[in-house]
Amino acid sequence: MKIRMVNSGVFTPIDDIQATLTAPEQGFYWIDADAEDLNILQPLFSLHDLAVEDCLSEEEQRPKIEIYEDHYFIVINSIRFDDEEIFLRSLSVFLGRNYIITVTNQKINELRTLKPILWEQEVSEPDRFLYLLIDLVVDNYFSVGDRIEAKIEKLEEDILMHTKKSHLIEIIGLRSEILWLKKVLGPQKEVINILNKKDLRLIDDQLQKYFSDIYENAVKIAETFETYRDLMGNLREAYQSSIANRANEIMRVFTAITTIFIPLTLITGIYGMNFTNMPELDMKYGYFMIIGIMATLGFGMFLIFRKKDWI
Amino acid sequence: MKIRMVNSGVFTPIDDIQATLTAPEQGFYWIDADAEDLNILQPLFSLHDLAVEDCLSEEEQRPKIEIYEDHYFIVINSIRFDDEEIFLRSLSVFLGRNYIITVTNQKINELRTLKPILWEQEVSEPDRFLYLLIDLVVDNYFSVGDRIEAKIEKLEEDILMHTKKSHLIEIIGLRSEILWLKKVLGPQKEVINILNKKDLRLIDDQLQKYFSDIYENAVKIAETFETYRDLMGNLREAYQSSIANRANEIMRVFTAITTIFIPLTLITGIYGMNFTNMPELDMKYGYFMIIGIMATLGFGMFLIFRKKDWI
Amino acid sequence: MKIRMVNSGVFTPIDDIQATLTAPEQGFYWIDADAEDLNILQPLFSLHDLAVEDCLSEEEQRPKIEIYEDHYFIVINSIRFDDEEIFLRSLSVFLGRNYIITVTNQKINELRTLKPILWEQEVSEPDRFLYLLIDLVVDNYFSVGDRIEAKIEKLEEDILMHTKKSHLIEIIGLRSEILWLKKVLGPQKEVINILNKKDLRLIDDQLQKYFSDIYENAVKIAETFETYRDLMGNLREAYQSSIANRANEIMRVFTAITTIFIPLTLITGIYGMNFTNMPELDMKYGYFMIIGIMATLGFGMFLIFRKKDWI
Amino acid sequence: MKIRMVNSGVFTPIDDIQATLTAPEQGFYWIDADAEDLNILQPLFSLHDLAVEDCLSEEEQRPKIEIYEDHYFIVINSIRFDDEEIFLRSLSVFLGRNYIITVTNQKINELRTLKPILWEQEVSEPDRFLYLLIDLVVDNYFSVGDRIEAKIEKLEEDILMHTKKSHLIEIIGLRSEILWLKKVLGPQKEVINILNKKDLRLIDDQLQKYFSDIYENAVKIAETFETYRDLMGNLREAYQSSIANRANEIMRVFTAITTIFIPLTLITGIYGMNFTNMPELDMKYGYFMIIGIMATLGFGMFLIFRKKDWI
Amino acid sequence: MKIRMVNSGVFTPIDDIQATLTAPEQGFYWIDADAEDLNILQPLFSLHDLAVEDCLSEEEQRPKIEIYEDHYFIVINSIRFDDEEIFLRSLSVFLGRNYIITVTNQKINELRTLKPILWEQEVSEPDRFLYLLIDLVVDNYFSVGDRIEAKIEKLEEDILMHTKKSHLIEIIGLRSEILWLKKVLGPQKEVINILNKKDLRLIDDQLQKYFSDIYENAVKIAETFETYRDLMGNLREAYQSSIANRANEIMRVFTAITTIFIPLTLITGIYGMNFTNMPELDMKYGYFMIIGIMATLGFGMFLIFRKKDWI
């Protein structure tokens, strides 16, 4: 647990916080806690029982916002693209009049990125901290979206060039990734919309219009993901068509082989007939001539088909 | 029939209701009735004949709203997802100045859920009761929508992985479920729109904007269901393509077998010809050599095709 | 021809109408005429020549509105779904300051439905009559739309379950029905838009917003029909895919038969070869053994294919 | 070259025009010229050099509007559907304060249609003339659109009923016609938008809202053509599916023939084997019995396939 | 490096610029520099370090705008279609109160086109210069869009007429070109939106509405490119269908050949049977008759198939 008195040099020991909570005019506390620290923090900031319970729970938390008497409890999902895989981290935030508590069980990149910004921009209200944090979180969705788009395009090109059966697995994998992100983004968007629209006491009116920018971005991301879903449909179609065409190619080769051999078989059939009077049969080199004719015919058909680009 | 004096401890026997109807400043009556109770209630609240008739009728009621002199009659459809099946329940509501009568023939979850909320939120007007009720009803559509979406996604994945003929039945079933819900939702949306837009005497102006929130939700649900319809079209397409591709696979195997055997047949045809001078025929082990050659050739073709991943 | 003094008990003989036309404060005339009656009515109401000519013409009239000095001439198309067929009826209306003349050559349901409403709602202006009439007309398009949607859904299900060639005829029929309705609705929408938007002297400003409701409905219907067109495209696709898949099934059976017989033919080819030294040929029961082997092999292949669900 | 003093009986010889140009309060000149007349007109009206050059050029002019000091130069494309072909005519217009010069090299229907309207509506300003002219031009696009839609629908029905290879040529032809019109309409729309939006000195403010009506129509047409493009995509799809299905039908017949003959060939193979002990071979009518059996078998298979509707 | 005192005849040597920078009432400096010139210019105009660094970097710059104390740094991408290939050039601009510095490493057409316009339109503010420049840049995207559209249409027609395998390469190439442009346009649009929306000190309020026109155009282009993406999907589909149909055609020919030969093979099979009593075998010209019959039959089938347009 790290406690920082943002925008004020003074460091306050954890036990004195309560005293200063009532009137820190020159800044606010940012407490970067993990779930277990809440046991200490709850009595100090009188955090709501249900919210603390949520943080302590092992389960994945869905994005939500709870409005309590003198603080808000916000859960949002941070996203990270690592090693071609997408990771989701729940980030819980308690926002009070002059403190903000971020609760995470795993390191979250956005918090690290946020630190220098806080000092540089001379942030002095917790609601502005919240805005910057959520902005960073939402921005990350864009870059994840870009990565997914790149993956889709790569896959589409691969499918068109050399379809493989394994592409189906990739399509299904990518598709469920997109659906999963779409599902995550839904409630997140709702949380941001509440910050944007509702008349919230702890969030400055001036600031609210910035949240509306974030909301617009969230909507844009959701639309993009909707588009990806359609693109996946196209991909599925391209794959199935490619597979069908490839199957057709093979069939064509098979059929071509049959088509070359059937006339030759007819010739052998002819000289296998038992007519009494078949002059060719008694010619000395009849057999060899016929073999020669058959070879010529077969090879000729092969050449014609090849020239016509049929096989 | 259960009568409750909401937000006031006083219990009024059914026969005294009429007396108190004129001036219960501190709350309103909620009467949770079934259709038969209406015979008693109709004279007390002078409910409109046509509305009562509708409630008593055996037929499924479509969502609607009727505006009478001093009360409204509203029918909405509650939805429930149980055991992978969707159930629809008609819920009729009589809304008066200081009473609300809910008429149901089957238990409706939303009413049960509503009870604690009424007390907790200190609801003291019947129109607010109506708002909370319809809000719950509409919210349930969302969760039904989620379940349907999950079903669609599961089915799509199944189809892409291992298409079975039975999937067609599932597609048709799911598709008609969606169409049915779309049809149910249409008039429901209209009812909510009237509550939202029209200038209704019995509904507080302040409250009306809340109805507009519900209406937005209803519109969102309707759009979602429209999307599901499109998704079902994609599913149908994916199924048909998959079936076609699978048929192609089998055809390919068949054709491959034919293609392997045809050249062998040609060889037998050759040695079945009746030429006088065919030296091989008189070789001692000619027959066995040819059998060997044929076996080698056939097996060789099989190996080549397999290696090329053609069969 | 029926003349009614709407909202006033007084009946006026046709010849006296002109006298009262100038100042009937307490109501308006509704004259339910057929085309021939116009010969009598034209001089009385000084109806415009071109309008009367249109009514008398045998040809189908397209919806339109003509603004004349002291009356409007409106043609709209009423629609009726009867015995699974759609019928279109032209309905011509002359709207004056205190009269409305409806000209029809066939009975039109909407007029019959309108009568009780007129009395019930105490309609006392001709423009309100017009509003109610057009509202009824447009409402009927909704129910026709519903029927068409039901037809489409039924057809889609039929096609997916058991595709028949006759379905193509049904698709084409339904499709041209939809295109025809779309074409009818276009100018109708324009007429309503003029009633809604333009500043018309004979139509009360208050009433105009009601026309805007009708216009919204007309737009909604037009959009629905646009959707139906898309649905028909899907249907065509589903049909063609189904037909293709069914053809594939049959091909598969054919190919399977060939595939079973080709190896057997090879065996007969082998024993048809003329090698001198083929020990099997001289075995006493060689022939019967080979026939047995062939039968076993053929039947075995059949069983394997069946078990793999290939035929 | 025809000069008309619109809305004023006075005819002015071409040489006196300049004199009256400064103050013709009661009307305006309409000069219906061809390109060569411009040599005479240019000095009189001091038309801009570049504009006159454009008119004289042999090349097809793209729709555009040029704003000069005291006159505007407008080029629009008139469209005509004649003998199932679409013709495009450039129409150049010089609009001055009290004159309008229309320059055409071929007869343009819209000008002919316009003449009676000018007199009937007592048009007395050149900008209103321009409005009426462009309105007529744009209206013609609608009817061309209708014709194209009719062509598309006819073609779609033809394709679904009896696909022919020639349909592909028709699709491609229709498709490029639509693309060509779309390209023509683009800059035309821009010209109208400028007349509609920009603050133009020579066009009355009152009139500008009428141009906005035309612009709306132009937008509607452009959207319609966008739709046609999609419809052509569907048509292409329908054609390709139909062709594929028809090919499948033929393949099926071929395969059916093969399937009927293969078992018969097996029988001949059996009796062509050289086993010593094959009792049937020595039966007197063995040969004829086998021929009979083969005929029966072949015909039987044919009947079965036919009955199953497989061929 | 060329320095111009736009809209003022005075030429200022580079070293005196700083002196005049404070008060050049009658114009502004346009300095057309390349990256290396920045070493001289940076101290004179106190350009921001990071911006200069960006210009000097070898890497391709993404479009962006940076707002510094007394100047803005803007990067946009100019596009050029040359020899059927699309080239992208980064163009960096420093905008100050009375100077504009354009930094390019390659010649950019837009700057050349801009020169005469500057003098003609008597541009006297640097922000207006910026507007004209960006307008030209964005306009070029339209013409690139047109070229791409033409390419798509040409390719579509080619594919429909004579599908070749090489078309797939063209589709993939065109597709990635479109995706690449879409990606370039995205941040460009954002830059223009900032110029359009944000309250920027160095850009005149009057001018801002012109930037809004450019933004509209940029949005239109982005939408067009979105459409192209869809069109590429259609193209892919058309290609795959065409390839499939072409494969079907070939298969049909193959199958037709087989179908013609199989019955002939049956005949040879019949006369290859070893029945003792087969009268035809001993007829003198039996063999030749059978050969004749087979030839007739084969040729007859060929004619029938050809007449039915099956091969």
TrEMBL record, chains A, B, C, D, E:
Signal peptide: none annotated. Coiled coil: none annotated. Mediates influx of magnesium ions. Alternates between open and closed states. Activated by low cytoplasmic Mg(2+) levels. Inactive when cytoplasmic Mg(2+) levels are high. The keyword Disulfide bond does not apply. InterPro entries: CorA_cytoplasmic_dom, CorA_TM1_TM2, Mg/Co-transport_prot_CorA, MgTranspt_CorA/ZnTranspt_ZntB. One of its GO terms (molecular function) is magnesium ion transmembrane transporter activity. It comes from Paenibacillus crassostreae. It holds the Pfam family CorA. It is found in: Cell membrane; Membrane. It is a multi-pass membrane protein. Belongs to the CorA metal ion transporter (MIT) (TC 1.A.35) family. The keyword Transport applies. This is Magnesium transport protein CorA. One of its GO terms (cellular component) is plasma membrane. Keywords: Cell membrane, Ion transport, Magnesium, Membrane, Transmembrane, Transmembrane helix, Transport. Its main location: membrane. It catalyses: Mg(2+)(in) = Mg(2+)(out). The chain crosses the membrane at residues 253-273, 285-305.
